[in-house]
Design a protein that fits this description.
alpha+beta; 4-stranded antiparallel sheet; 4 strands; 39% strand; elongated
């Protein structure tokens, strides 16, 4: 007998925010793209109840709230998002948060910089 896992994801959420190490980044802002995956085991025999899954509306609210707090590092933003999800959704076994910073100020054409954090229970 096996187990059933399900993944709830939000993909390519676009935010305009003011994260960056340099003061001009925090002043001008830029576009960020965020992905969230939450994986959990299914124990509910297919019951049609929101309590048996991860509410992706709540995932979006957490991400949106954290993206509004200006920080120097996108690693810090991702960590805050991951920690809030980890503490709110105790049945989630794996959480992945990735953030891409579009057009980072590097003096060359670069589509994005990116970080990814993963948590396993």
């Amino acid at each position: 007998m096996g187990t059933i896992s399900q993944k709830v994801s939000l993909e390519a959420i676009r935010f305009f925010a003011f994260h960056g190490f340099y003061s001009e980044e925090q002043l001008l802002g830029t576009e960020f793209i965020l992905d969230i995956d939450a994986i959990l085991e299914v124990f509910d025999d297919g019951k049609d109840e929101l309590a048996n899954t991860v509410n992706y509306v709540r995932l979006f609210e957490i991400a949106s709230e954290e993206m509004k707090i200006t920080r120097k590092l996108i690693e810090t933003v991702a960590h805050s998002i991951l920690e809030r999800i980890r503490h709110e959704f105790l049945t989630v076994q794996l959480i992945r948060v990735s953030i891409r910073k579009m057009n980072p100020p590097l003096g060359a054409e670069v589509r994005n910089s990116a970080i990814e954090l993963t948590f396993r229970r």
